[in-house]
Design goal:
Elements: H1 3-14, E1 18-19, E2 22-23, H2 34-48, E3 55-56, E4 60-61, H3 62-67, E5 73-77, E6 96-100
Parallel strand pairs: 1-3, 2-4, 5-6
Helix pairs in contact: 1-2
């Protein structure tokens, strides 16, 4: 199973509310079949007995995603070496945005504070 499909399944099982695929410079997959994603989510709901279906948004570029106003706590999972904090040591709020990089990780150009 493809990594993104596995992610959809696991994210649904743990109760994620919304998923927005982000297209980055190093993304292996630039196009996504939303209908297939919906089917994977529904299967995961049935398998895990979840009654909440996460919203799957259309893919968006990293720049466009960051430009949108995000009013909650933000986290970026990355392999880049900069001052990292372990997510398990952070207080995770009910409403949080977590960005998970593509297979090749985010590019070094990205500087966020």
């Amino acid at each position: 199973m493809d990594r993104f499909e596995w992610f959809l399944e696991k994210a649904t099982e743990i109760g994620i509310d919304e998923i927005t695929p982000i297209i980055c410079e190093k993304s292996e997959r630039k196009k996504l079949k939303i209908e297939r994603c919906e089917n994977i989510i529904i299967s995961a709901m049935k398998q895990s007995l979840r009654f909440h279906k996460p919203i799957i948004n259309q893919p968006v570029s990293f720049k466009d995603f960051i430009r949108n106003k995000i009013d909650n706590k933000k986290y970026i999972a990355s392999c880049n070496e900069y001052s990292k904090k372990l997510l398990k040591n952070e207080e995770i709020y009910k409403s949080s945005t977590i960005l998970i990089g593509p297979e090749g990780d985010f590019t070094q150009i990205m500087k966020l504070k």
